[in-house]
Specification:
The chain is α+β, with helices and mostly antiparallel strands and 507 residues long. The chain contains 15 helices and twelve strands. It is globular and about 65 Å long.
C-alpha cells in the first residue's frame, strides 16, 4: 500500500487546492515516473474531446488485468487476467476462504468456529453475492443479509472529541450496540435488532413531460435485544458494494487523487471534492481513505479485517477482539465461547487467512467493456462529459509503478471515480459524519462494471442504500455538488437520456 507522511500529505492537500491544474497537467506529484513516463501518462489520461469513436484501450478498463471472459452471472468472479501461476493459486485459496461458512463455538470443525457471537452473515460471500452488489430487503420476509445499519453518536467528552480530531476514531460507537447493527447471533446470545425500512414516493418531473417516481427511505430498528438505542443515535444504511477492481483502486498514486481535490472550490466550477484522511492501522501514519461508501478505509486488507470483525464477528491479527462488535453492555455476548485455537494462532482467523482473502479481493477482475463503439453509447459518453459527470467520475488513471502488486503497476485503468468526498445534497444525506466525511458527503463511487449489475445480481438497486431502482433514478437522486449535472439530465430529451443510460450500461 502506498503511504505518505502526515506532513507531506498535508502539504499535498494544500498544493492540490492552490495548484491543482499544475499538478494535474504537469504530473510533478508522480515521484514514481521519469520524464518520459510523465509525458506518456499526461497524453493517455487527458480527457477526450473526440466522441466519434471509442478511445484507444477503452475496451480494457482494467488494463492487462481486464477479464475478457463471457459476461454472464460470474462476470465479477474472474481473476485478474495477468496473474501468474502462483497468483492464480492464491486467488483460488482466497476464494475458498471468502466463501467459507463460519460456525459458532465450540464446534468439531475447529478451523471454522468463532462465528459471532453477533454477526450479519456467516461468510463474506453471503454479503457480496457473486462478488457483486447488495440490495435492500424486498419484502417483510426478505432478510437484509447484504445490507446493514451503521450506528454512531455525537462525541460527548473531550476524550471522544480528541479521538475524532486525531482520527484515532472516525466515529463514536453507540454505547450499547456498537458500530453496526447485527441481526443474527449464536445460540444463547440475543440478536441486536431488526432494521426496518419504509418508503415515501418522490415524483420528479422531467423536461419532456415524463415523471419519474423516486422512493425516499426512512430507517428504524425494532425488536431491540439490549434495551433502547441512545436517543442521539445516528443510523446509516449500507449495501455491500461490488468487489471488482479493488487492487487497482489501491494502486492509484495518491498524488493523482489529491490533484483533483478542491475543498474550497478555488476554480469556481461548483465541485469541491476533498480527500478522506485516515490512520494506517499498521503504521499510524495519515493516509488516504479509498474504500467504503465514505472512504473510511485505507486499504483492501484493512477493509477486509473490518468486515471480518463487524460482519462475521471473527478476529484476525489486524482486529483481534474475539467478540467482534459486542460492547461491554452486552454481557452474554462478551461471555460467549470464542473460536481461538492455540495450535492455530491467537485469533479465530490466523494468518494467512486475512492476507489470502485480501489477495482474492484485490484480484477480482473488471470485465471488458461491451459496445463501447456503438453510436448510442458514444452519444451517451459525450453527454456524460457535457453534463459534468466526468468532473467527479474521473474516467481514467495510470496506476503507480510502486503499487503493492506487480500486476497492478503502470496500468491504464478506467474506474470513473476521483475517490474524493463530495456533498451530495440533503436528498442523499444520512446525517452521520465519518472522519472527514460530513453527513451529506460521500465518496464518488467507481462506475466500472455497473452495467452488469442485473446480469450478475439479478437486480438494479443502486446508491449506498439501494433506494434507486434504476440508473436513471440513481442520477436523479444526485444533489449538492452534482445538482447541475443532475439538472442537465432532467432537461434532456428522452433519446439523449436513453443514450446516457446506454453509455453507463456499457461500463
Amino acid at each position: 500500500m502506498l503511504k505518505i507522511s502526515e506532513p507531506l500529505l498535508s502539504l499535498l492537500v494544500v498544493l492540490s487546492v492552490l495548484a491543482a491544474p499544475v499538478l494535474a497537467d504537469g504530473l510533478d506529484h508522480r515521484d514514481d515516473l521519469n520524464a518520459k513516463d510523465r509525458g506518456r501518462v499526461r497524453a493517455i489520461t487527458a480527457p477526450t474531446v473526440d466522441f466519434s469513436k471509442a478511445e484507444r484501450f477503452e475496451r480494457l478498463p482494467a488494463g492487462a488485468a481486464t477479464s475478457t471472459a463471457r459476461a454472464g452471472r460470474n462476470a465479477f468472479s474472474e481473476f485478474s487476467a495477468n496473474l501468474d501461476f502462483e497468483g492464480e493459486r492464491d486467488f483460488k485459496l482466497g476464494n475458498g476462504l471468502f466463501r467459507k461458512l463460519w460456525v459458532a463455538s465450540p464446534s468439531s470443525t475447529q478451523a471454522s468456529d468463532g462465528l459471532g457471537p453477533l454477526f450479519n452473515a456467516r461468510s463474506c460471500q453471503r454479503c457480496h453475492l457473486k462478488d457483486g452488489r447488495g440490495h435492500p430487503p424486498e419484502g417483510p420476509n426478505d432478510l437484509a443479509t447484504s445490507m446493514f445499519l451503521r450506528l454512531s453518536v455525537p462525541p460527548r467528552t473531550e476524550a471522544e472529541r480528541e479521538a475524532l480530531r486525531t482520527r484515532t476514531l472516525l466515529s463514536i460507537p453507540e454505547p450499547t450496540y456498537g458500530g453496526q447493527l447485527q441481526d443474527f447471533s449464536v445460540p444463547g446470545v440475543p440478536v441486536e435488532g431488526r432494521m426496518r425500512i419504509r418508503y415515501e414516493p418522490v415524483p420528479v418531473p422531467l423536461e419532456d413531460g415524463e415523471t419519474v417516481m423516486l422512493r425516499r427511505p426512512f430507517y428504524s430498528v425494532d425488536r431491540l435485544g439490549y434495551g433502547p438505542l441512545d436517543r442521539h443515535v445516528m443510523l446509516s444504511p449500507r449495501i455491500a458494494p461490488p468487489m471488482i477492481g479493488l487492487g487497482l483502486i489501491e494502486a492509484i498514486h495518491p498524488g493523482d487523487i489529491l490533484a483533483h481535490a478542491d475543498p474550497q472550490d478555488a476554480d469556481g466550477d461548483g465541485i469541491s471534492g476533498k480527500p478522506s484522511l485516515v490512520r494506517d492501522p499498521d503504521t499510524g501514519q495519515a493516509v488516504l481513505g479509498r474504500f467504503g461508501w465514505k472512504a473510511s478505509m485505507p486499504s483492501v486488507e484493512a477493509q477486509s479485517a473490518g468486515a471480518f470483525a463487524g460482519d462475521l464477528g471473527i478476529s484476525t491479527p489486524a482486529a483481534g477482539k474475539a467478540w467482534g462488535d459486542c460492547t461491554e453492555r452486552q454481557a452474554a455476548c462478551r461471555a460467549a465461547p470464542h473460536g481461538v485455537q492455540a495450535r492455530l494462532g491467537e485469533t479465530e482467523a490466523p494468518d494467512p487467512i486475512l492476507p489470502l482473502v485480501a489477495f482474492y479481493s484485490r484480484n477480482l477482475a473488471v470485465p471488458a467493456r461491451r459496445g463501447e463503439g456503438q453510436p448510442d453509447v458514444l452519444r451517451g459518453k459525450a453527454l456524460f462529459y457535457e453534463s459534468g459527470c466526468a468532473l467527479c467520475h474521473v474516467p481514467k488513471y495510470v496506476t503507480a509503478r510502486t503499487a503493492l502488486q506487480k500486476q497492478h503497476r503502470f496500468q491504464l485503468i478506467w474506474p470513473y471515480t476521483d475517490l474524493l468526498l463530495h456533498d451530495m445534497g440533503e436528498g442523499l444525506a444520512d446525517g452521520r459524519p465519518v472522519g472527514d466525511a460530513g453527513g451529506s458527503e460521500w465518496r464518488t463511487a467507481p462506475l466500472w462494471g455497473i452495467g452488469l449489475t442485473e446480469t450478475v445480481n439479478g437486480h438494479t438497486f443502486f446508491l449506498h442504500d439501494g433506494r434507486a431502482r434504476s440508473l436513471l433514478e440513481a442520477v436523479l437522486w444526485h444533489g449538492g455538488e452534482a445538482e447541475a449535472a443532475r439538472d442537465a439530465v432532467v432537461d434532456m430529451n428522452k433519446a439523449d437520456r436513453q443514450a446516457l443510460i446506454a453509455f453507463l450500461e456499457s461500463l
